[in-house]
Structure prediction request, 296 residues.
Amino acid sequence: MSALKQLTAFGCGLLFGVGLALSGMTRPEKVLGFLDVTGQWDRSLLFVLGGAVTTATVAFHFILNRNAPLLGECLDLPKETSVDRKLVAGAVIFGLGWGAAGYCPGPAIALLAQPNIEAVYFLPSMIAGWGLYSLSSSKLMKSAHSQ
Amino acid sequence: MTTSLTPWNALAGGVLIGLSASLLLGINGKIAGISGIARRLIWGPRSESAWRAAFVLGLIAGAACCYAVARATGHTAWLPHARPGFPPVLLVAAGLATGFGTALANGCTSGHGVCGVARLSVRSAVADVTFLATGMVTTYVVRHVIGLP
Prediction:
């Protein structure tokens, strides 16, 4: 069962990676070409999102109704539903990074398939950013417990 | 450097991404959020690292396959290239912000952007509008005020 789950995960990762590279979204200049609405606007990202969201919305409709995945007991969905300051602050900080360099996490990881000098600077920094959050949130948890 | 609309590639790639998210949820019951999967693979508990590692390896392999075809058919413009004159300090700062921000918001363009919208999550829609708007303002400043590529 768990081997089958790993195989599924690998296959899904494969599809995702082909999708990202085929759509051109692993090239930061394509992403910035979309975010740069005042320049020579490249709307390709809208087509990527449109294709992905349409496909997923139709499929999710049936999956969420079934309530259980093919392998395993339940769907592991995010429990958080509130719109809070953490969400908005996080999205703003991510937007700053995304708009500056043109990499979101998927394309940044895909750099490992064709490494260049930008990967050397961006990838370890992104991983450090994740670690910084883990560190700060575990410190916050500890201080909340000690109070 | 400016790029132009490539609708068919974009649409086909998008459908594949949507298909990937649908299969991962339908078969394994997991959300295809890249930032969450990769972050927890590195900084999270060991208990679920096997499928997360498999997904990340698949993603790299998928992109590698695509690049191999691009190289073989002479479409080298489709490979990611380092931008000459792009300051390393900005890449480092952007990397830190992308990591920390996606962790704080618990999602990025895949988790909130694709899966969140497909689940009709208001929380994700707010995140999407926020990072899209911030991204557009940031790109404007970086390209037209500072004057970087």
User: Anything to note?
Assistant: Residues 2-114 of chain A form one domain. Chain A touches chain B through 116 residues (CB under 8 Å).
